[in-house]
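Supplementary material to the annual report.
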Amino acid sequence: MYRDKLLGKGSNKVLKYTSSLTSSDRAMVREVITALIAHTKSLVKHNLVPKEVGDKIIQELKELCRNPEPLFTMEAEDVHEAVEIYLRNKLGSDAGWVALGKSRNDHVAAALRLKARRELIKLLSELIELREVLLEKASKYERTLMPSFTHLQPAQVTTFAHYLLSFDEELSQYIRILKYIISEVVSESPLGAGASITTNVPLSRYELAEELGFSKLVINSLRATGSRDFIMIVSSILTCISVTLTRLAEDFIVFTTPQFNYVSVAPEFLATSSLMPHKKNLVVMEIARAWGAESIGHLVAILAIIKGLPTGYNLDLQEVNKHFIQLLEKTTETVAIVRDMLKSVKPNEESMRADIAKYPLLVTDYAELLALKLGKPYREVHELVAEVVGRSEKLSEVYEKLGELLGKSLSPEEVINKPHEGSPNPSYVRRYISKALEEVKELKEHVGKLLADDVVCST
Amino acid sequence: MYRDKLLGKGSNKVLKYTSSLTSSDRAMVREVITALIAHTKSLVKHNLVPKEVGDKIIQELKELCRNPEPLFTMEAEDVHEAVEIYLRNKLGSDAGWVALGKSRNDHVAAALRLKARRELIKLLSELIELREVLLEKASKYERTLMPSFTHLQPAQVTTFAHYLLSFDEELSQYIRILKYIISEVVSESPLGAGASITTNVPLSRYELAEELGFSKLVINSLRATGSRDFIMIVSSILTCISVTLTRLAEDFIVFTTPQFNYVSVAPEFLATSSLMPHKKNLVVMEIARAWGAESIGHLVAILAIIKGLPTGYNLDLQEVNKHFIQLLEKTTETVAIVRDMLKSVKPNEESMRADIAKYPLLVTDYAELLALKLGKPYREVHELVAEVVGRSEKLSEVYEKLGELLGKSLSPEEVINKPHEGSPNPSYVRRYISKALEEVKELKEHVGKLLADDVVCST
Amino acid sequence: MYRDKLLGKGSNKVLKYTSSLTSSDRAMVREVITALIAHTKSLVKHNLVPKEVGDKIIQELKELCRNPEPLFTMEAEDVHEAVEIYLRNKLGSDAGWVALGKSRNDHVAAALRLKARRELIKLLSELIELREVLLEKASKYERTLMPSFTHLQPAQVTTFAHYLLSFDEELSQYIRILKYIISEVVSESPLGAGASITTNVPLSRYELAEELGFSKLVINSLRATGSRDFIMIVSSILTCISVTLTRLAEDFIVFTTPQFNYVSVAPEFLATSSLMPHKKNLVVMEIARAWGAESIGHLVAILAIIKGLPTGYNLDLQEVNKHFIQLLEKTTETVAIVRDMLKSVKPNEESMRADIAKYPLLVTDYAELLALKLGKPYREVHELVAEVVGRSEKLSEVYEKLGELLGKSLSPEEVINKPHEGSPNPSYVRRYISKALEEVKELKEHVGKLLADDVVCST
Amino acid sequence: MYRDKLLGKGSNKVLKYTSSLTSSDRAMVREVITALIAHTKSLVKHNLVPKEVGDKIIQELKELCRNPEPLFTMEAEDVHEAVEIYLRNKLGSDAGWVALGKSRNDHVAAALRLKARRELIKLLSELIELREVLLEKASKYERTLMPSFTHLQPAQVTTFAHYLLSFDEELSQYIRILKYIISEVVSESPLGAGASITTNVPLSRYELAEELGFSKLVINSLRATGSRDFIMIVSSILTCISVTLTRLAEDFIVFTTPQFNYVSVAPEFLATSSLMPHKKNLVVMEIARAWGAESIGHLVAILAIIKGLPTGYNLDLQEVNKHFIQLLEKTTETVAIVRDMLKSVKPNEESMRADIAKYPLLVTDYAELLALKLGKPYREVHELVAEVVGRSEKLSEVYEKLGELLGKSLSPEEVINKPHEGSPNPSYVRRYISKALEEVKELKEHVGKLLADDVVCST
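Predicted assembly:
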């Protein structure tokens, strides 16, 4: 509808190629409508449209917000045009009032920020639940001995709790960053920025912001309409989270091989083969691992689209949206599935104990304690112990020789009691968990408030 | 259905997370069914299933190939399972014969290769048509003078034909590579490779290959089922093509600014603003430019998924498919839209002539001819001319001084007659076009044959 | 030296392939030594090494910190081994004391975090200076009229100040995020985490942290040694900054074409051609634009390396470092060069005024004001104006007709006075600048303190 | 030197930021000089420079080709300017003759193509040697039983030979593509294309091409100077190769865990820990795995730089070079190290046999053979066997029940004799190896010829 007077009819082929209606717009249609409701309310409030017209428009938009499906049967460049066509079909030329003082450029930016905020709050919520599962499991398996690994080679003795908490701490950092981003990065309102230099229509940008629950403005109107800095930032952090989860996925794929057999996972997370009747594959973790890689791809798409664009809105930015929405939705889904799987996980203590007995996981402890006891440079002791390991045929020989030198035998149970915060030492682990649970409690309250403040289709 | 006996019921949440049915499978369902028809035919031929059962299955599959929609209403891990469920619903336990001697692993690989081949042939066809447009336009605008650019700064005098042919030659290279890839890379059959080490069922891998129009085997069954080397290769080349097209897109975006105004494009390729009534934006080229960036993202997703996967099929590979299909389909669509737009393009000769008159595009020709005439080192002449340019207030002064030194004035019309193949010299341009048209003719015949050999749902 | 007793002599070829000594280690050698000094001090303090030995080691390390060049003539797996070899050459077997209670895994993580913090502080400092230039220029060109652009097509009238401030606001957001990252993400100490589960040696992790100026611990030792979450996060934000700068670079490349001629840049930022004596190319901005793309590449390298790695240190992580260091150093360099160039920039008011006169930049203002005046739906007015634009041959006709309808003529000078914060309206621009200058002042003090606290080779 | 007359003195800071001299140029300095020698010879031949001057220049260049170090002590924008300065220092203003009829734009493109060709030939040579090792090992371990894997879970019985050959076949495909690229993609000469539209100087582009061993021209001069299609294509394929090798790397990292213990690798490819005296980490494969990820990053850098560049040379393209050179050099190095490691590999037959005995690797064979024997749909048999596996406590029970049904017991030795090419069946394996060895022989001759034709610094 926008083009006819200036450019004449469009072509279906071009529309198919350039329209965002059926690709990314569907995922944020409610946010688009919500921004438009806020805009129309403001027009009414400032007597910029006839009140009765404004009210009719608002009513239609609210209904559309509840069921936006009719929009997707239309031919339109994007959801913004589709809404206008829909309103015109309903209200005739009165619908045209809605276009006053706005542009697609400021409204799509507002919808994207609303969408981002809502999805990030969901993600936050899922991450917190994931932490709860990690902390609960860690609590339960505080003394469940397990080999630690470097280079996928057995390193020293740790506990299943210690292993799980490495992810908890990393996720707690992402949660803090997401909180920061929700309050400081995405909650800036671009509304009122017009197409590039705001508008002559005397709306209040602050009121518009407030109506959508935004705490401040993207001030500069060129930035408000033409920049996607917030998408780059959010997408980056989502990708970091997803890449972190690929490491957990990899661990569980390795740990559920029968050769390792360190953990058991509920059968619902496994799949079998159409040919091989015995297969039990941890496919959910493969999809999660792949998702990390896909995240990198979506992030690259976004960054590479934006690279080298001139200032101001360019339609290239529309193509950013589908990648961004994928990142928002699929990351949350992945966090949820990882949590569900972890809930079902049981460590196979026997297998891990067997490996602790089989591989020389105590020699480092012998070496350190020997160095402390003998008062010799560690490098010398390291070489001595390496030689013992290299020359002995059996592990029992190694431990025997080292035990002799040290004057006592070490057991896996005792070596985890390292004198350091952050070690597998159960007393430090407990301390960490107890602090973390408090943090989680506060986070849940915080998220509860954020969820309560949702403005989308809210009235 | 596969999992019940060994693993019990699955979970909807897990299925939603892991199933490919509604994401990538839809795009290659016909290829999957076609591979299954070939497989069943082979089973019948070798008396491995009862003939009447086999025939019934084939008939059902052929019908399904015509209308595969029923599959997408099912709950299944993927289209392979969905087809088996569909057949069971139709044929009861007889449907289970189809599973003999095959795995999802070899069949999904076969379907992907079929899909790749078909889409690449389409792309080839569109690229050839794009070349036709380029060559036709070049023929028409052989003597249409235009500034050449380096660093987006006016450089020397060229022609619109010369400009267009730079893309023609680059695309001709991609076409040759695609031809190579179609015949040498994707046309290898993985069928018969089973899940990882072939099967005990005495099918003929060569017959299966032939049935699907494949010219040879992926021999090693681990590679056949677990490698996606062909997807990495194809996706890379598609990305290169799309990135090349971003440069054309950028050129046209710049050339259609009123400041340049070098070309006019039919209004159907433009869009306007919902706020600013005068805007004429070349949005198709913005989408094409964004697509190049998105291609890089999809390629990264694919490569990063595959990076570090252990040998053998992993479900991570399923997630490759949607990115691959995007690349296959959207690249072709982009080539087609670029072609359509180019068809409508008219160079604005006056604007380009005006710029040629305004900017010092002839000084390099003066410098070169001066060096030849004076018998002085070019570096000296370059410095001399640079000084003249730097010190003169007006371009006419520059040309006057240089004309005096050279003993004659140069005109834009004559300087394009460089004594070199590949220059804007119209006689070389004509020679290039005439060779290229012959090449295009042969290519069209080649593609015609490829299209005629399509096996999907073909009988 | 580490390997000989267990594994025998290494191979030069393997060492060349796997050693980080001459690639990434050089850039963070001082940070490595500083961490080792802190470690040795702690050993001395807790009587874990003989005091005189510890003191000798510390003295040697301090000297090495001043001139680490000798390390790079050695054959070693990495700088950590090189330092030990160096110390052994100087102090004999006493050097071996330094190895007590530490691992390369916790020390390389500490050095990387130190390096990140230092480089980010430098970057912060450069970004602040860049803001100062932007604010100063904006102050100066508050009323310098300029076309705004969307889709690289002239949109409406704005000012050079308004244009510049769009970057200032975006950079101010990155600055806030960097501050957050410096204090909350990189300033966590991994020291004392050992190889994966801390150590039996009774050091104090908190003391070690304090010695290096870290505000808290990476608590979990598996995360401390095996995670590079902080690198992913920092690298992401650096990439966002660099991509933002590519848009500024693109603008200036376009604006310095003679067709636009909107800005002049000092000749030192231009380069010419070896062949074409007249060329003036804005090469610094091309390198800055390329750097944004390279950043994406380095970020991908980092993320793709980490994707799918099992928990614990893997040598893959060593390869992350060179990409990270590139990102840290080159982003800062780019910010500095952009600042230098901007300092030299002069807007060409005449060219911009000429374009404002030539293109229909006022029609949107006419349309908005007409809608307000006539009390008609904006969509109707938009269509009306579009028709006028479409049918008129000359811009003067357009303005005449619209002026008649509106009852007055609009001038570029007045239309910038939009009634909105964030618009080019000089009064809002001034308000923004004055707040921003206060912010910048505080930031400079903050950075001053951070710089003063640098611990590297500090004593 | 180029800039002084037009632009005045440059700035050191800008030079540091924009110069390629010490980054990428070093790696291709000899190719640059070789192209310049060819150019100068051509000038002499066509009497375009005084013969004695030309000869002196050629002599200096040849010497410089042997030792180009002096160039890197200079301040210059790039190696091209450095060479001119060097020549001027040696020959005075006579050096300036070399600049006639050329540009940096065509010469850097020529040097890059020369460099690419040379490095690809090296890579080809290393890949062939890698194939030789794979084939030799496969020959040796034709009957060495090994579990096959899907989803990293044991699947069926295969052989070590079959496993190795999956990589051989994949590499053979890459080798064919590289051969194609060497002859069809990189061996096109851009020389004579000038800065963008060739030159007025009557050189012969064909002679120049021949002098450098190029088989044809990049015809269009805009493409010749401003396109990097060949770099995108080559870089893509190098990345595919490197990503393929990450899978081999991952396999060996997993297979050398003590839990798997499937292969032994010579100690020179292992590294130990500075803290843990018993560690034996397969670090070379970790670096190779990381390299695959880094490749993706370098490829992204290249593609993202080129994305959206306007036609013609832009200095952004200079920044492509360092990523390209990394890809060329490090891929070859990685292939070489993988080959060296593989040479040292010994399969641990006992461990693999133990796993074959422990895990239900024969049930698929039972299922297939049962289906064939009983004449029942495979799906039914699959379910039956799945139930047996699911309900049995011990593997022996499973085999007993299945053996009863089948009427005979299966052994791992016999099940590998699948009736299919591409299976682990030793007779098919032998056939493959024998064909492959012939192929390798021909390839070595081919590469020998290519190596003999090297033109760089050749005379």
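Chain D touches chain C through 72 residues (CB under 8 Å).
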